[in-house]
Amino acid sequence: MLKKITSNLLFKVFIAIILGILIGLYLPESINRLFNTFKAVFSQFLGFAIPLIILGLIMPAIADLGKGAGKLLLITAAIAYGSTLFSGFSTYFVASGFFPSFIEAQTVENVGEGVEKLSPFFSITIPPVLDVMSALVLAFVIGLGLASQGESSLKKVANDFQKIIMMVIEKVIIPLLPLYILGIFSAIAYNGQVESVLSVFLKIIGIIFVMHFLLMLVQFIIAGAITKQNPIKALLNMAPAYLTALGTQSSAATIPVTLQQVQKNGVSPKVANFVVPLCATIHLAGSTMKIVACAVALMLMQGLDFNFTMFAGFVMMLGIAMVAAPGVPGGAIMAAVGILQTMLGFNAEAQALMIALYIAMDSFGTAANITGDGAIALIVNKIVNKIVNKDEVVV
Model-level pTM? Predict the structure, then answer.
């Protein structure tokens, strides 16, 4: 039991934040510069890896969506994307309207400026092989091309490349993230910014926790209105899947429980067996909510200007990029880091804070994702019964 707790990514990030604060407050400049050196090097590696992560995850994900299900695939993907957009836009309006009331003037300062006062002992430059936007476009072009084909040599190469990238994420980036976050928080504490940053963090986490439950309630109210079912009863039936996701932090690992609970809500096994595994990959409304809310908060903290037009493009792109999120804790934020950088202008320090905030709420976002899958399954099941000839559904 103890080993399971200590190996949990959230636990490691929590310990890294605490140690970083203690190191920044009580240890000498030389120790803080040492951790800042690691932060600088790892930041360069992360910048190099982000375009490769986009290529390695998005390209095969889009290619795989082309297999099989015809109308049912399009219907499910459209509903899942709509749910993600609803989550992103509603979160933006709540966050932009409410967050400025508690992110006060003293916290509105560039987090990165304080970090830069601690210079690393040395730095290296690792230029990426291509920029993030080029990687996105290339991933879409190749992925869509592969989706229109059957099995091909290039598709096998794409799948092998995906395995390599996921290995890099699981074996290198995720294990080193706590040390990277430790370096960020030691610098923040060393420069006297830790109290303001942590107070904002705690408030954001509390607000997003409440927003997740409101999102799930709205999803099931809509599904209940379409299917003429009691939305509260249907939502409560998904509780075992929600609780399982809290423990596993993985939509994929929760699929067996999700399937069972979705069928208790009256979804046919044929529809459930298709919709639930697909939505575990493409429906990330809860994760999108976390990213949008945290992005607004960090932009306010850094004094960066933003508007609805900027976030509209970000949310729409995020809904696509999140399809690439691998089934590992923290994978979704790694898939989103590239567009945070290119579309919202997040620097390395802001990206690290974003990762820390995201991981702190990872279980709740995953649980909201899979619970929302249950609402989508209800809607798709109704559509299949009413519109789509069952003989046309290939699963």
Answer: 0.73
